[in-house]
């Protein structure tokens, strides 16, 4: 009986170890935003592409989170198009010039998105129509937001269009309790 129990425990340990390794190899436990090669992103704006986010002013009733609807149109839709949320809203090279790095070539993207969704998530016909509407739940980041439409997937992102900026009515509102040390040792 003890041998069976020992064998059972051993098999459970092996199964758990194999399961852990398999999960790690297949990306489970990996931070989804780390898959975006934002350092490779380039600006490739297209005049026929557009993004519109609404409402423009969030938190009118004092909320610190709110759903935003984003409508997009792409002239060359593909299954790997994605929409990223950026805060602050200006995330191009004009808001953060390079630091004399020969590898950095303008225009470039100087900020990573705080979240993203594939454009075809809400419309399975996106690749045929080039139109989609996505909903994002935003939390007051104490700064404005904008959305960027990217083609080329996560590994070779090309910025096709940028939305209007949106903001919370009171972006500097106190949201959560925080502890901070004062000037004296007993504050």
TrEMBL record:
Residues annotated as domain Purple acid phosphatase Fn3-like: 51-170
Signal peptide region: 1-23
Organism: Citrus sinensis
Database matches in PANTHER family: INACTIVE PURPLE ACID PHOSPHATASE 24-RELATED, PURPLE ACID PHOSPHATASE-RELATED
Database matches in Pfam families: fn3_PAP
Name under which the protein is recorded: Purple acid phosphatase Fn3-like domain-containing protein
Family matches, as InterPro entries: Fn3_PAP
Spans through the membrane: none
Keywords, ordered alphabetically: Signal
